[in-house]
Amino acid sequence: MADRPELPDNDVQWRSAGDRIQTLLDACAANGTAAYDRAQQLVREVVGLYGAGLQRIMELADAPGVAERLATDDLVASLLLVHGLHPHDVHRRVCDALDRVRPYLGSHGGDVELLEVTHDGTVRLAFKGSCKSCPSSAVTLELAVEDAVRAAAPEVTSIEVRSQPDTNVIRPESLLSRVHSNGHGSSSWHPVPELADLGPGEVAGFLVAGTALLVCRVGAQTLVYRDHCPVCDDSLAGATLHAAMLQCPRCHTDFDVVRAGAGPDGARLEPVPLLARDGVPSVALHATGVPA
């Protein structure tokens, strides 16, 4: 299992463009107030120029489907949001974000329903379905949902989670507050474009940010787990996949990768959030390198 090569230049790099711009501005401040003010003015002029250009593009994009394609492209959509030009309202964008994350929720036996988007920007959600008492599943589900919603609708001020009355659903209290208070808020997303090349029935190992991961492809679903067998406390390297069942090559224990990595006697694999960000498969890991 080798570490991944450096990513080529592509749309992914623009996700952190704002941070790089701020770093450059801070560097300009070292040369005095006048230099910093000129740098800020330059950024404002460039942003204004591109904003005007985007507005003209949206006005001219009257061919059937063109505006929709622009609005659903992650990179273009982020620029449209910055300039207040996105054609979809916040409710539509939140709905679309939830639709994109539902395959991941479904892989853990869960689902999410949008209850409302309030006038002050609060999104209220209800999680449904069983997380089967998976020790990390509920947290990873909410982390994935929060990330998807905030990327699609940065103007959202808060996200509240309610439970359904079933006894097996994700617990009533919102885990998002605990995610941040317990340090999960320091999680970061790492692009792994190689995941898109995985074929149905294949299992592959990846080393991402120092963390060994096992990736399974079941039909159209790609599922990511930490490379660790909870039964024999060893690596899953060399594991085989039969339908949705992953067998540890050492202790021969079977785990259902579609149902949150469920194994015998309550044993479970540790799931890792997987989302397409800027069109590239990406996994969420803590800043310390363990799965989010």
Give your account of this protein's structure.
The protein has 292 residues and is an alpha+beta fold. The protein folds into 3 domains: 19-83, no CATH class; 90-165, GMP Synthetase, Chain A, domain 3 (2-Layer Sandwich); 187-285, Rieske Iron-sulfur Protein. It has 7 helices and 12 strands. It has helices at residues 17-29, 33-60, 66-72, 74-82, 90-107, 137-152, 175-181; strands at 110-117, 122-129, 158-163, 188-191, 203-208, 211-218, 221-226, 240-242, 245-247, 254-256, 274-277, 280-285. The protein has a 3-stranded mixed β-sheet with strand order 1-2-3, covered by helices on one side. Strands 4-12-11 form a 3-stranded antiparallel β-sheet. Strand 9 (245-247) and strand 10 form a beta hairpin. Helix 1 (17-29) runs antiparallel to helix 2 and helix 5 packs antiparallel against helix 6.
Short description:
Pfam families: NifU. By secondary structure, this protein is α+β, with helices and mostly antiparallel strands.
CATH fold field value of the largest domain: Rieske Iron-sulfur Protein
Q: Which CATH first-tier class of the largest domain would you pick?
A: Mainly Beta
Report low-confidence residues grouped into runs of 5 or more. 1-11, 131-136, 165-185
Class inferred from helices and paired strands:
alpha+beta
Helix segment tally: 7
The total domain count is 3
CATH architecture of the largest domain: 3-layer Sandwich
Radius of gyration: 21 Å
In total, the number of strands is 12
